[in-house]
Amino acid sequence: MGPAVSGTRKAKLWGGRFRQDTAKSVLAFTSSLPFDRRLYREDIAGSIAHARMLAKQGIISSTEGEAIVNGLVALREEMDRGQFAFDPHLEDIHTAIELALAERIGEVAGKLHTGRSRNDQVALDLRLYVKGAIDQLTGLIQGLERALVGLAEAHVQTIMPGYTHTQRAQPVLLAHHLLAYFEMLERDRERLGDCRRRADVLPLGSGALAGTTFNIDRDFVARELGFGQVSRNSLDAVSDRDFIVEFLAAASLVMAHLSRLAEEVVLWSTPEFGFLTLDQAYATGSSIMPQKLNPDPAELVRGKAGRVFGHLVGMLATLKALPLSYSRDLQEDKEGLFDTVDTVQASLEVLAGLFSTVKVNAPAMRRAAQEGYATATDAADYLARRGLPFRQAHEIVGQLVRYAEERGKALAELSLEEFRRFSALFREDIHQALTVEASVAARDVYGGTAPGQVQARLEEAKRILGMPADGP
Amino acid sequence: MGPAVSGTRKAKLWGGRFRQDTAKSVLAFTSSLPFDRRLYREDIAGSIAHARMLAKQGIISSTEGEAIVNGLVALREEMDRGQFAFDPHLEDIHTAIELALAERIGEVAGKLHTGRSRNDQVALDLRLYVKGAIDQLTGLIQGLERALVGLAEAHVQTIMPGYTHTQRAQPVLLAHHLLAYFEMLERDRERLGDCRRRADVLPLGSGALAGTTFNIDRDFVARELGFGQVSRNSLDAVSDRDFIVEFLAAASLVMAHLSRLAEEVVLWSTPEFGFLTLDQAYATGSSIMPQKLNPDPAELVRGKAGRVFGHLVGMLATLKALPLSYSRDLQEDKEGLFDTVDTVQASLEVLAGLFSTVKVNAPAMRRAAQEGYATATDAADYLARRGLPFRQAHEIVGQLVRYAEERGKALAELSLEEFRRFSALFREDIHQALTVEASVAARDVYGGTAPGQVQARLEEAKRILGMPADGP
Amino acid sequence: MGPAVSGTRKAKLWGGRFRQDTAKSVLAFTSSLPFDRRLYREDIAGSIAHARMLAKQGIISSTEGEAIVNGLVALREEMDRGQFAFDPHLEDIHTAIELALAERIGEVAGKLHTGRSRNDQVALDLRLYVKGAIDQLTGLIQGLERALVGLAEAHVQTIMPGYTHTQRAQPVLLAHHLLAYFEMLERDRERLGDCRRRADVLPLGSGALAGTTFNIDRDFVARELGFGQVSRNSLDAVSDRDFIVEFLAAASLVMAHLSRLAEEVVLWSTPEFGFLTLDQAYATGSSIMPQKLNPDPAELVRGKAGRVFGHLVGMLATLKALPLSYSRDLQEDKEGLFDTVDTVQASLEVLAGLFSTVKVNAPAMRRAAQEGYATATDAADYLARRGLPFRQAHEIVGQLVRYAEERGKALAELSLEEFRRFSALFREDIHQALTVEASVAARDVYGGTAPGQVQARLEEAKRILGMPADGP
Amino acid sequence: MGPAVSGTRKAKLWGGRFRQDTAKSVLAFTSSLPFDRRLYREDIAGSIAHARMLAKQGIISSTEGEAIVNGLVALREEMDRGQFAFDPHLEDIHTAIELALAERIGEVAGKLHTGRSRNDQVALDLRLYVKGAIDQLTGLIQGLERALVGLAEAHVQTIMPGYTHTQRAQPVLLAHHLLAYFEMLERDRERLGDCRRRADVLPLGSGALAGTTFNIDRDFVARELGFGQVSRNSLDAVSDRDFIVEFLAAASLVMAHLSRLAEEVVLWSTPEFGFLTLDQAYATGSSIMPQKLNPDPAELVRGKAGRVFGHLVGMLATLKALPLSYSRDLQEDKEGLFDTVDTVQASLEVLAGLFSTVKVNAPAMRRAAQEGYATATDAADYLARRGLPFRQAHEIVGQLVRYAEERGKALAELSLEEFRRFSALFREDIHQALTVEASVAARDVYGGTAPGQVQARLEEAKRILGMPADGP
Predict the structure, then answer these.
(1) At how many degrees (to 10) do helices B118-154 and B93-105 cross?
(2) What is the pTM of this model?
(3) Which residues have C-beta within 8 Å of that of residue B267, sequence separation ≥ 6?
(4) Which chains touch C (3 or more CB pairs under 8 A)?
(5) By CB count within 10 A, which of B410, D120, D231, D415 is most buried?
């Protein structure tokens, strides 16, 4: 029989050697319960697997094991139902659950922590959480991809100006433009998958830092929890947060992509561009200007990229120069992680909705593609194909553009004679070569904007996304 | 009489031109109420001043003004008492307050928004908030300064090794070391003060972006709210978040300083250093290792520096390349700001408590200062003072140290004869010159570690902090 | 006479106790000479002041002092002329200069380092450098301000759409828009000035960390070098890099402002906006698209903001959790600082040139301001001024806009009768109230866009910049 | 025959439509030649493959193709020998090489740019560079791993205190501690490998943004250059810098790991810890304190982590909200990348050297492991194994530690009777169970610190690194 545990100490998983209570401000400062309670399902899943293993190994009796598992299952249901009242004076979710278990099943709850430490326990919870978050986010990425691909499918014929330097450059298909984001998002999925693979390592069994003295079965626990690997070094396992940094970096790239897409939504829905009309369900108004219809959701996605970059930086700075193994600084791993998951999730959902409902102004796009000199490269290629070194062809067409511009004409409005004043290589077919249709069709290279190429990429994307072959 | 306002639209300050409701996910995504409700006092203060001004200028009647002001005061009391139920479907704190006011005082509430916009209103709220936060934090900085100065006062005679490269370098007084942090914190206070000066500019009256068409009195509002200046350009005023970036940068430096102090707490309370014993109220234990007494509060302060750096980066990234004037990206200014204020506040409080209760192991410090060769510079200075170029003196003493080290002796344990083998300039007083007391006393330069200098700096610090002359 | 200094050791200011040479890779890794040679003028200025002080105090003879000063002056001239060959094997600029001095004036050079250390020396150099850099940058900021104010002066009558959410919001004067940047840049100047004040503290005399044993005169050195203050704590003085972080933060805000301005250049010079035509001297072309005229300088300014933010983060991360006093990590303070100065300088110069030469398309701006419903707020204010609560007025005009939009009309194209269908408060003067001129003129509040207000702000700006009253 | 190209325009690959020269300051601001000349080998390799393909496809004649290839090979040799004088007025490395080629082989050089653009060319160069850099860095990572594993092998028996919170926690083997870094570095290698896979995509053929009108063979070029994939979307391919961000993120984690290792070098080589003695080739001295032997290389590695984090942030901020496709902001991708490669490379080399030469003070480590109460967990496990719930066992041992501490005794110095005063479960074997050897041996779990486990991990590491089975 152990000595009595004094009242105030019951709120902690330690205290035997302490003569004095923790300062109230310290308790509030160090408690992670306000945010790590979000991990309750992961924590309980880990404890159930641990308890089963302890019983299997005979470290606790099977009756004890059952009592613990049943107690944990009941607790989880209570929490799922939102009926569990978390005591704000507790240190963390592990403490909250262990003490609640003790209240419900008595002293035997004290056997659950045999052969483990909060250091390997929290590492376990976080790895379970990150794996789950990645599964959820990759699903949402596909949701946005489907919305983009669906819109692309409706616009395989829509010609718009392709931009470099935010200046009209060459005509492209809108579908081609939208599929560029499909490529980015596919890389994001792949990158998150790589991160998931590195998160998929069971740390439990590393104890506080050095392993445990009990005859545990780590492979059993790994199987129970669905981990592909078991960690190889206990000191590393309790202080490794690489998988969180890697997740934040991958999430930062997702947000970088979404911020680019959002920027285009903002630009394209200005009256100056006039390419898109947002559905009113995806726009907001002004408290003072009655005419306003603002692309707030897109602006917020764009702005929120900064927040995720900040979480990445914060985590890296926190890890810097920490000696092994666990230090309390590592508690800072959670809030930025949770907020990142929430931010990426909401941004993906909102953009998927936005692109499922947006109206494209195809005539405006086409008009913009035709204005100006977007097919000048085609004129230079025309000359180069007739034997002129490209560098000279470029020079000549530059002068041609200047000539046309000074006369306020488009290239296509110049007469053949005018063309030939600059090079005798120009023939009658030059006007045809400079239409936006011809320009787009001519880029018939793998990855290029020619309709056939884009259609093939679109089919590929649909296959990857499991979309029906005939339409979105 | 205006047309009926439909049920669902009541939840917004706009909607007349919208044929369609906002998507639910968009509402959740764009709503700032979950965090900006923290600004309710600032928002109400601004509205009261605005209403008074509208009445004074005759833009609304004085009866209307009174009704609005009384309604707002009542609302604030309700919120202060925690009795106000915020509707999570509202867009922001401004909407929540205006609608609640309308419920309480009727249609006249709709006159409050005359001559202003949420764009200048939120800028106002944030400036009021930042000014208040700075006032609070500078008070807490002084609290930590007092704790450090109090400890310094108790240790004006305590000699410890001064470190460079975390290697013992020269003996210094503990008081001198502690007062180095006083200097850092004083700069922090000054820097926050400069930031406050730049935040102290009334933006109200800038309208949505271009000013207002009503005959408002901005100076009156500024006086009511205690602003020193009135903004000079409306486009700038509604899109300027410089004061937040500047605050986050100043807070980052505070946290950088606190992280350095925390690092020393961690190091000095290791058994290897053994310089400090933390009060148990400022330490925590382990769930598995019963002997542990960990410096968690200091570790967390150190770790939390990263989070504040992250908020700074996030805000800068969000502002980058935003065209004028207000864009919704700016809504991202709040959460990082609030979290920074909370983090800096708690870190200052915890460290003040820690330093008010920590025990210094002065004998261990002195022992460490005497071991090794911490007074070797004094030997070189000794030679230089006797005419040898310092560069040669340095070289000779380097060889002397190597000689002593190879024999396992301290410098002071070498005989005069041994000293003279390296330079004939050494005399009998060399042993005295190499004591830690002599070393410390010799650095009698402004800013140096000689007891008189340190005592003078200490007095100065106490005067600045308003501490009694005789003791802490 | 000191012992012989061996050949290889001559390359360092230390080595007496070392039995072994530094590894070559370590030498290359730790040497700062490749970048800190940029500080040679600051280093020599500091050494001259230090030598004069040593002589004045009798620590060295006046002949020695003169020899040292003359040697340093000659060395500086050699370096100014680019004739000094830096030996890449030396540790830093301090070593390079001290060894070069010894070569030129012999053993007496070895007395220069009396009473100082590289730790206070490098802190001195950096403070001198930052002060100089701030002086230069504030001059360049004024250069850009003059270009903007000059352009504003030419466009006090030019009406353009003011934007919120990158959507047309209310008409404003182009001059008003440009002066918003004047406000930002003035804050930048002020902020840099505050930073300069905190950098203006002499650290020399702090020695390696604890002060010095020599009877130095720090005030004399401060006066010689033009410092306003002398540092108060030696431990702090050698490890304080706050002024660098503060400079980087201020520079980050400058770049944030320039990135916003650059974004507008990019947007406004698209054919879609068509507000600006860049001078060809401030645009570049494409290697493949002959028609291209790209706003590359603006894009680069926008992009370079990221680099400066990165330097700020890097410095904060480097400082985090460094125990006192000097650690070699601090050597990382220089490259980011230098690059920031170069980046901000070039960005300011390029934008000043761009705005001095850009052509404004005033008719396009005016056309854009007239299209759409940019004066809808004026309609709401019209009703509110006639007694309707603003909230109801807003609702009514929202419906009016929707009505007009459905008929493809501008507000001004509605008949009075149509107006009155929505509110009987509309009178004949409503059409006049909705012109862009009336809208701009009505915002006649301090900080607003009414011509008189803008003109007054413009005069103020010109006075601040010392520009002639009559024109740019 | 093409029109004459005017003198000044020769310095650019464009200019036909320009009536005016680029401003000098703009030229200096926009030129990337000062840093992208580092890519000359990648650029020439790409051009050779492109020229071969053009000839193979009959787009240029085989004679032309040969002339171009031979010219490029000669140029590369000239550059390899350092004999090529780069003209600082040129825009970039692509221009420098194309113009130099034209000087050497005449007009035919102008055909090289057929069917490509600088946009896909620079993307190609960067991908080749990143792939090469990753190959080099993974080799250097292995170099450091070998140094650590070699030291581990010499210390499989060395017992030291394992730390949590920088407080002694439980005894571990030094080899176990060193192998924790092996795990981190292996993850780094894997992560860089994943990044390499995503960089291994040929962008050439994407043209400026839309593909090309020439009948090119992208697969041929991919094979020539050793690329595993060909990009699928031209708009994405010219504006995708994900692989650089991903590389910087992976490099940031490498530096985070190295900073942790460096921190331990700094701590462990203090006299307070006394665990390591640095070889003098890997330490530096002080210009003023003759006794100093500072761990500068480790400090610099620690400090340089900040710089790499900064480059990562800078790149993310630069990418944020850039509309498609190429914008000049992307030029900012290079300097941070190059500096990161250099920094990581040098840091790995220096630490590998440091760990190959450092001396371990094994007795000091063992002494530290034995002092204090590092085996208290073993006492609690002892009780738990005898049936006491772990939570109670922890509580009892906590009180035991407190009891011993108050008497100034180690746990092992308590008599059996004293032990039994706290629990009757203690038996005679308790003293044996509390030795550091027993403690280490008891953690015989996969990943734990028991000698057999560590030996097995060590053999595995050696096998992975290709080190001989018998020794380092």
Answers:
(1) 120
(2) 0.96
(3) B166, B273, C323, D166, D267
(4) A, B, D
(5) D120
The single-letter code of the amino acid at A214 is F
Asked if residue D106 lies in contact with residue D46, where contact means CB atoms within 8 angstroms, the answer is no
CB D234 within 8 A of CB A457: no
Strand runs labelled E in A217-297: 229-230, 276-277
Mean pLDDT in residue range B35-40: 97
List chains adjacent to chain A, taking adjacency as at least 3 C-beta pairs closer than 8 Å.
B, C, D
- Percent with pLDDT over 70 in chain B: 97
Same fold, B119-367 and B370-465: no
DSSP labels, D316-362: HHHHTTPPSS--GGGGGGHHHHHHHHHHHHHHHHHHHHHHHHPEE-H
Q: One-letter amino acid identity for C24?
A: K
Residue D165 bears catalytic tag? yes
Question: Mean pLDDT, chain C, as a whole number?
Answer: 94
**Inter-chain CB proximity B260 and C446 less than 8 Å:** no
Tokens representing C432? Answer: 């006049």
pLDDT number for residue C461? 98
Smallest CA-to-CA distance from D309 within B310, C286, B60 is with: B310
User: Superfamily for B370-465?
Assistant: Fumarase/aspartase (C-terminal domain) (1.10.40.30)
Burial of C194 (0-12, 13-18, 19+ CB in 10 A): buried
Interface confidence: ipTM more than 0.90: yes
HEC string of chain B? CCCCCCCHHHHCCCCCCCCCCCCHHHHHHHCCHHHHHHHHHHHHHHHHHHHHHHHHCCCCCHHHHHHHHHHHHHHHHHHHCCCCCCCCCCCCHHHHHHHHHHHHHHHHHHHCCCCCCHHHHHHHHHHHHHHHHHHHHHHHHHHHHHHHHHHHHHCCCCEEEEEECCEEEEEEEHHHHHHHHHHHHHHHHHHHHHHHHHHCEECCCCCCCCCCCCCCCHHHHHHHHCCCEECCCHHHHHHCCHHHHHHHHHHHHHHHHHHHHHHHHHHHCCCCCCCEECCHHHCECCCCCCCCCECHHHHHHHHHHHHHHHHHHHHHHHHCCCCCCCCHHHHHHHHHHHHHHHHHHHHHHHHHHHHHHCEECHHHHHHHHHCCCCCHHHHHHHHHHCCCCHHHHHHHHHHHHHHHHHCCCCHHHCCHHHHHHHCCCCCCCHHHHCCHHHHHHHCCCCCCCCHHHHHHHHHHHHHHHCCCCCCC
d(CA A45, CA A225): 8
Residue at A231: amino acid letter: S
What CATH code is assigned to A119-367? 1.20.200.10
Min distance A414 CA to chain C CA atoms (Å): 15
Domain boundaries, chain B: 7-114, 119-367, 370-465
Contacts of C372 in chain A (CB under 8 A): 271, 291
Is it the case that residue D91 has pLDDT exceeding 70?
A: yes
Count of residues for chain A?
472
Q: Determine contact: D301 vs chain B, CB below 8 A.
A: no
The three-class DSSP label of residue C162 is: strand
Q: Kindly indicate the confidence band of residue D226, based on its pLDDT and cuts at 50, 70 and 90.
A: very high
Q: Report CA dihedral (C388, C389, C394, C400) to the nearest 10 degrees.
A: -20
Domain boundaries C7-114, CATH class: mainly alpha
Q: Please report the pLDDT score of residue C21 as a whole number.
A: 86
Contacts of A24 (CB under 8 A, 6+ apart): none
Task: Tell whether B29 lies on the interface with A, counting CB pairs under 8 A.
Answer: yes
Give the span between the Cα atoms of A19 and A23, in whole angstroms.
12
**D 313-372 → A contacts, CB under 8 A:** 313, 316-317, 319-328
The count of other CB atoms within 10 Å of the CB of residue C419 is 24
Strands C276-277 and C229-230: unpaired
